[in-house]
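Hello K.,

You asked for the raw outputs rather than the summary table, so here they are, unedited. I folded two proteins back to back in the same session to keep the settings identical. This is the first:
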Amino acid sequence: MSFINSTLGIVSFALTMPTLAQQATSDEKEITESRYETCDGQDSHCVKNIEVIEVKGEKLNPISMGAQGVYTLDRKLIKDYRFGNGNLNDLLGVLPGVQYGESAYTADQVSNIKPAEVSIAGADGRATAYLIDGVSNNSNLNNVAGNTDRNLLQDVAGHSQEVFLNLDLIESIEVYDSNIPAKYGNFNGGLVQAQTRKALDKLSFGISYRQTADDWVEYHNYYSPDFDGSDTLENAVFQKRDFSTYISAPVTDKLGVVAQFQYLESQESLEQLGSLRLQEQTNYNGFIKFDYALTPNDDISLSYLFAPYEGNYFDVNALNSDYTIEGGGTNAVLTWQADRSWGYINSQLSWRSSENSKNANSAWYTWLNTAGKNWGEYDGSINSLEGGFGDIKKTQETLSVKQDFEIPLAKVLDGDYSLSIGYALEQQTSVFERLEDAIVYNGSIISPMIDCAGYQFDCVETQLYSSVADLEEELGRPLDLQNSDDFLLYQSNIQQTGQYFQSRQVTPKAKAEAQVNVFSAYLENQLEWQNYSLTLGFRYDYNDFFTNHNLAPRLRGTVSLFEGDGKIVLGANRYYASDAINYKLNEAMLPTHSEVRAIYQHRPQQWQASLTNTGYRYVYNDLETPFSDELTAAYRHQLLGGTLELKWLYRDQQDSINRVRGTNDLGEAILYGANSGSSEYQRYSLSWMATYDNQHIECNVSHASNTTSAEQFDGETRTYINSNDYFLNFSYDDNELVYLRSDNYELSSRSVNDTYHLITRHDMELEKQDFNRPIIANLSWGGDFGNWQLSAYARFNGAQDVVYATGTTKSVSEATSICDGCAPNRKEYPVYRIEKRPSFWLLSGSVKYSLVVARDYTMTLSFEGENILNERTYQVSPYTTGVELGRRFWLGINLDY
């Protein structure tokens, strides 16, 4: 120790744990006492007038004490609440108002390695901004219809995030639901920012392995009321393995490196029409990051992340339906952070590339369930499905540069002023390439006399086990089909009934490319004066597709009460959406067209273009950018060593882009973009969170409502000639239409009146009311007790109306003939059903035990349980047969140095 002058100042930080009687926690320190003491005269360093300054540092908990509506999950919370796959989204549910999509609770989620989609502030997953070290991780290749049906005709089921970041990589997570600073933009939901771990100043490394399997899962099998008991459900046979390793080390006194690799694999045997088949998914996370201290005031970091995903799937209700989805991506980020006497600078250059592609059979057949094509009997369907929807390759590449400046300004009238400014430039290129023609056959015609004339795939001829002559020879007389015995004999002799398709829809091989350039800038001025703070900012965004100049105000402020123990938070903000490249890509895509063929003398003729249906294109002209206006008010108070928060949040989304049917001057069917859509979201939440010396606890309850305007829907798809006959009022793709069944229960007559609505999948996604449970409650806790680490997490999901898949189809006949020589056209569409899903509780927990196995080596054994109480999740409707997930476990082992 060296002394500069005769007075020694000793600062002792008493970072004491607040007890229940102490004031609550925040992220600030307070000087509680300053006094002078006389040091020991025998000490050679002793001088007079030693000042002892005692500072009380308060424990952090997730609730912010500033004006921003942010919740922070540190490394401790991340480790305690890691359940299941260990994805980022799996952790967010402990926070108020965060809702999962209903697919998060389905039975196939136990083997799925994709993160569940989440909603923050009422918006769907793709409206939330995801950042990794300040760089966007949002994918514009996602299709929300993939949340309902993974096997899509015109697209590939994706995810709102480009890469699935493993929790082992993350140091902290910030989740914003309101009062989001102006430096963040291009979203109209919430914001999730993950900070990756930095290199340590000493060597550390580790290896871990976790596993779950079907022996550690309980399934609940439920059967429909008309189940005859013949074919009972078989539980899936699966295993899921998670292997990861990391190293963090100093390379020199100024350079450090951290690297991590994770491999997550799932193998599941699913029943496909009575046979068990293997379905596989894999996800990799390879990450390396260098941190270099260029000067005492300049830090440079360079990181590279490689995270591909692959899933090999099949449709459980269709033959020859294998398909592979490849996703994930890569990013590289260069960051320079500089401290100067006049302020702080953060400069960043990043490159990202991601993929969302599918390999599948190129033709889809909806056969009638007859002899030879009767595998549909397995699930009681009138149809037998076969095939796939063709190969599609989608890629997204993004190059961006940005700079942020934080500048403290001079004091004025005892007020502290600071200025935040910044800008960003981004170029994003997306490519949609259909690698082959995709053909959808619908509306099979039974024709025992059909002669396929060389058509091998879309036409089958009648085949008999024995010829009619052989039967007559066996009978010793001519076959008489008017005789019931002869008729039954002939029916049992049919090996395959002749049938053919007279209409099909063809999506041609094509490639579409779109590029969008984006410029953003922001400015925020913050004033802190006595017990008040006020932040006023603006954000400007421009892209060269919509060519709109968007200016979003951001206003937030606080008032401190009760000597700093209480704080009122108010805010009014606007957030603009940013998925322009999706619309530009849709415009560039070629439409589907219909083809028909006639039958002449029992032989199918050549396919020819239909005059009644030529497909549709997208056109987006003169559109405004969708935005969401926000009002929020909150009160936070320090209570029982933690922070109590009462929050009201209101979002009014305007200028949402809806679809309007029409035609252009050439008579082509067009879906025009319009700004007629809107929605409203409102939430009340009550939360309390606290962190103590060796424990932490978080609890919250939220009541939310979310309404969507009628203009957002496509609406009626049919025009009726009379009460029974109709024709489609637009050139829809066959795979785009579904039946939605609703029931009206009449108690007096004890009857059910069912109504079937033929709607688009776009409307079904809106009807589904995903992320819209009115009441959500969470209670979570974690603690360290010597070698033991314990945690528990309980979640209540309130009841709501949802859409169930029935696994059946409904047949309809159109009023018009599609060609001369064609039979009346009939098509099959899948049926979904609206039902009430009851409320349910889920309890998860983990137990970890750590022990030193050698010098500086620690081994940790872990046990994780989900749905420990084995509760129902009501994913199977009361009228269908299906499987729900019950209790399930993970076991793991870690070795760390």
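The second followed immediately with the same parameters:
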Amino acid sequence: MKDLSARRMISLALVMALLLSLLPSLALGAQPVVFTDTAGSYAKQEIAALAEEGILAGYADGSFKPAHEMTRAELAKIMALAMGLEENRAQAEAFNDVAPDSWYRGYVGALVASGITEGTTASTFSPDAKVSREELVVFFIRAMGLEQTAKKYPVTTKLSDMKLVADWAKAHVSLAYEIGFVNGMENADGTIRFSPKTNSERQALARLAYEFKTNHSVYTAKAKELTSQEPPAAAPAIESLLSKSTTALEVTFSADLAEISKDDFKFDNNLVVTAAAFKTGSKRIVELTTTSQNSGTIYALSYKGIASGKTVTGSAPAGGGDGGFAGGGGGGGGSVQTVAQKLASRTPQTTLTIDVSGTYGPSSGPVTTVEHLIVNPGPAGEVTLQNIQPALLEVRSGSSNSIKLLNTNVNKLKVNANSGDDQTVRIVALEGTTVNETEVSSKAILEVASLQSTLGKITLTPSVEGKLITFRGTISGEVTIEAPNASIELSPPSNGNKLPTFIKQMQVAAQGTLINFAGTTQGIGLLQTDYEVALKGSSDAIAMTLLSGSGSMILEPSLQSAVKIQAIANAELAMYAAFDEHGDFENILAKVQEAERLYNIALYHGAVEHEIRNANTFQTTLKKKVYEMRDFLPTVDLIYAPGDSAESITQTPEFPKASGDGSFMITWSSNSQFLSPGGPLERPAAGSGDSEVKLTAKVFNGVHSATKEIKVTVKQYESNVTGIIEGYVYGAIPSKVSGALVTLNGTNQTTVTNQNGFYRFKDVKPGITYTVTATKQNYSTSVSPEFKIAPGQTYNTVFLSIYTVPGKVKFHDPLFYNSETGTYRLAWVSDYSSGNPDSMTNNVYVNQIMYSTVGLQNLLEIPVKPGESYTFEVEACNDIGCNPERAQTSFTAPYSLDIESLRPYNSVTGEVYGQLATDYEFPVGYLLDSAPATSDSILIKLKNKPSSVVPAGSTLDYSNVLVTKLYEPSNIQNHIITLNGESFLVIKLPQQPKGNYTMEGFQFKHSGTIHSITPVWFKLK
């Protein structure tokens, strides 16, 4: 029990992850989402709800693609990732159709290793096959932990096509329908079908995901309630159906009925049951009263919404019929028209019966329409119908030499020639014939002799069990075999029919089918089945037949080797043809798809990749690139403005130039001046009519190019329709101004720009001259040029720019003090980005007192006094005002000293020599060559500079003096001596004494305050 519970939880997590991963990307937030293509979807509410919760999202172009299908390869990747499985490429080795370098191989192997799948056969996985509705339901039932419950519940009888559901899915589909988790689709006769083989769509996934997410507990409770009750008793079967008169039928059941209702009995062909009653003395026989039956018409009975398989032929009224000439009529003693005359009349007819061989219908011109046409000329009869349009054409007899249809359009064709077991009637579709649906209930030969003709969707009903059905010519519609033990033959076409015998698609929905390729080398394009199907005849034809589904082909041993060899040859030739195709992309795609089809056929019949020349290169290069282009091309479209679509363009759409990942590039061209890439939308003038525009998108992926034509309608302006004026207000480029007041001059409309600087005026009358004014407090005002708008136009105004006060100035670093002139130099950088440079000025403050106003000049020298402190400020101004933030710096002016004398000195003997001569350069040069050779130092005496007199009573401090010489690696020795009551600075001469010297660190004290002194320079020469 514990293990079962754990498995159930894993299933729940797996399916939710699977369903949500199937959708292209997760939304990052719960923002409301509006898709461009879900308005017509039956699951639009569920799609919107899940999108708002961030569970699913659409594509980059704003669409959801509700009808999009998925493949088994995609399913494998999603399941493996949802379960957190590691890729396992080795475990996919058994599958011939999973290439070693395919992107999905590791995911397929992961599912095999975990026991989730065994493939469609022991050697195939069918990666390109779609996921059917019955497969999807199985996943959900397993996810809800109801698989074992489903297997205990009887198979439902409420779905008319349960016989088409695979055996492994019947229990799951039945339970899902009974608990209301899935719905069916209504047939024309009121019964419900499930369509199990139809591929699953994204909208179905969205609806089931929503139900699973929100009502999971409700469905599990319903299932438990159903299974806790006694299983419903099997309904009595209908054993016979007899016609007693033109308005009376008798139905016999296999067991007694508890009660009856006329509403339980339904017939096709507009026959209505008006009353139902038990036959006197019986609960098994029911007498039905009906509306008047048409003589010879076959009526099929459904009981409680389920087809009974029983039919009855309408009785003739008392006194005999009209020989099939119903639907005519005369008056005033006129003659009665024959059937041939009626069918040639080009006037609408109701029900007619042809019982004589011949040609019927107008020879040319307008057609004759018939509600119900019965062809019953007898076993040897031959009939040609031309230019006739029956809603229902029923063939009850005819020879093997044909019922021929020429230029005839039929809604539904029924072939039911059961007057003799050996009778075979042939139906031939000649030129100009279209049949929407063909239903075969007897032996028949079906032939198409024109590429422009079709027998539509062909269904072989259970009534042809064990009977031979022959096909000739090209059968383009899908053939469905519902009859068990059916015998199918593909024979050579008749004389004069130039079309090869080929069936595009066949679905075998019953066991025991035998297909004999007796006269064709073309085979069947796609054979879909979950059953074993026996094949015999031409090995060439079998090697052209692709199998899909969980069924298998059974071949005679003598055929197997020949089929494999031929299949390999077919695949190689098709790949060569695909590589050699350089025409339109549609041609390339068709040849790649055909090569892929034949490659899969070869794999099915036992070939491996290395036996097929160029298979690996084909799979990894040509096929990959072509399929990427094929899948991307449908997504190429304009990005329409909100409210617009291809059918109605009123605003300029966006022309995408690349895919989201950049792997595809797109160029656009147009056949119209109204809408073209790079240009504005030019709508037709009011009264001139809408314009249909054809756009051509050319898509490149580095290897191939393809084109897609998109037709759109540009709507004309309506004469009294108001328009829109919109634009941006800019400040400092490239920034935009929010909160700006914008006025539409000529109206009473004003608005304020949003956080992006954008504004919009709606309901603007056309044909009037306007200007737009933008301003804001502490900003300038900007006015646009005059303009007019057309009806319904969205007009973008010209550049509107407003400015405010300048930005804060910034000082250059470092600032400069000139001791010679006694000035302090201020230098700064102005910020013009938010202001108007033409009106900008700078106010300079010294100790908070206005000193000067300068224009664009960013440099000013200010006199200062030694020993005094200053605070300098600069503010930027323009015509709007001044920036309240001033740039600020502080400075205390230092004192300066000069050299009074410089004398040579002998530090050993203490002898002082005469003062050195100078050359009066800067720095002052002293001629060392005149010094005695015995001097090893110099004595320096300092004095006040005239512009910087040290206050009287100050004490000079030498203690922190540092003497350096240019290019001398170490500081020069110095000390203080006192001679005759005066202080001198003694500098020890270095080994190379000549050069530039700097003395710094002098200070003086005055009234307890220490003052700095600028450095002193001199030069020894």
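Residues 202-228 form the longest helix (27 residues).

Happy to rerun anything if the numbers look odd on your end.

Regards,
P.
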